[in-house]
Amino acid sequence: MTIQAPPTPDTPPPAGEPGLSTPSRRLVLGAGIPAVLALGATVALGAPRPAGLGDATGDADLAEALAPHLKGHRRVAAALLDGTDVRHAGFGTDEHGQFEIGSLSKTFTGALVLDGMARGELALDSTVAEILGSSADSSAIADRTIAQLASHSAGIPGLPGDVVSRTLWTNALRKNPYAGFSAEDVIGDALDSTPTEPGPAEYSNLGAALEGQLAAYAADTPWVDLLRSRLLEPLGMQETSAPASDADLPDGAPRGHAATGHRAAPWTMDGWAPTGGIRSTGADLTLYLRSMIEGTNPGAGGLEPVAQASDNVAVGVNWHVLVAEDIVWHNGMTGGFASFCGWNRGTGRGVVLLTDTALSLDELAVGVLTGQVAS
After folding, report:
1. Cα(254)–Cα(256) distance, rounded to whole angstroms?
2. For position 50, what pLDDT does the model report?
3. Contact at 8 Å (CB) between 352 and 286?
4. Considering the chain, what is the average pLDDT of its residues?
């Protein structure tokens, strides 16, 4: 989905090996399209700070295979699933170290939508107006559906003007552009937006945030409470949370780094949480990924394509599929972290990669899933 923004660390490097298909720039996200301005802001931030990859932990063979591909990273957690076998490796942390997962959070929102469908609270063809009632009557997006929001095909802008204007200073100062917006603010911004016609997938953080808040509205329960009661607790994900503000962070919560190496503020996202506000660990995301592979996660019912982003990228209910490789995936990036979670449906192999540096992990992850990166 075309991102009309200056180049950012959200843009993955070109594939380094012949035949290696990496997720397209059109689908690379962060919890924020404006994660960090890579151009212009460098002067304001000062000289880049060299990264040093932390000491290896866990499975030595997996760590040895990944290390050459992690230039510029510091603290990294990795999990590799092969059938019932799970291997964890880390650098400067282990599988219980916490990271912001950015837009990987969208897949949790998709799972909550599908869970709500099973409970009769909404449907994929439910419209914004059907869920919100008269408050959406005059909105240009009143007829957009949950399926369109979940597949980025609703024509809703990527971000509203109030967030875009805030990034003019938060990017340069490595601050959180999403702080202080309530669920009501997100819904209001979406209702006030000027959409294009529904069509091919065009990445929209605003659309995904609205999707999550509509699921919460239909359930008459705040999104973070739905997340906890309907996903985290049933899956045993005790190390995962979605802090609404910095005050909700535990003492000593890890902070990430911009691509330049400078420390970045945490992205606690309140009303924007459905699009990118989750913090998790390698251990918990292993549980999450296994539940998707085995089909016990409600989100596993949303993998059929709803929209196309490109010839080789289809979008279901928040998950993306590399069609030729049969890889289901989602990535994420905030101002100081990046993530990848996905699996190869042909081989059953899955991978979780987390880093506390805003540098893409996509090429490495897809290489692991296709076997082009030996692991």
Report:
1. 7
2. 76
3. yes
4. 89
Residue 232 tokens read as 């985290």
Task: Name 313's Cβ contacts closer than 8 Å, sequence gap at least 6.
Answer: 23, 24, 26, 27, 201, 320, 321, 322, 323
Give the span between the Cα atoms of 51 and 43, in whole angstroms. 18
In this structure, what token pair is assigned to residue 250?
Answer: 């535990």
Structure tokens belonging to residue 291: 């539940």
Token pair 């506390």 in the structure block, residue: 356
Cα 248 to its chain centre, rounded Å, is: 20
Q: What are phi and psi of 341, to 5 degrees?
A: -145, 130
Beta strands 279-281 and 98-100 are: antiparallel
What tokens does 198 get? 């529904």
* CA atoms of 281 and 263, how far apart (whole Å): 20
Q: Reduce the DSSP state of residue 342 to 3 states and report it.
A: strand
pLDDT tens for residues 200-226?
999 999 999 999 999 999 999 999 999
Residues 109, 208 contacting (CB under 8 angstroms): yes
Helices (H), the chain: 41-45, 60-66, 105-118, 128-132, 146-150, 161-173, 183-191, 205-219, 223-226, 233-235, 273-276, 282-294, 362-370
Amino acid letter, 5: A
C-alpha count within 13 angstroms, C-beta hemisphere, residue 294: 13
Statement: the pTM of the whole predicted model exceeds 0.85: yes
Contact 343, 292 (CB under 8 A): yes
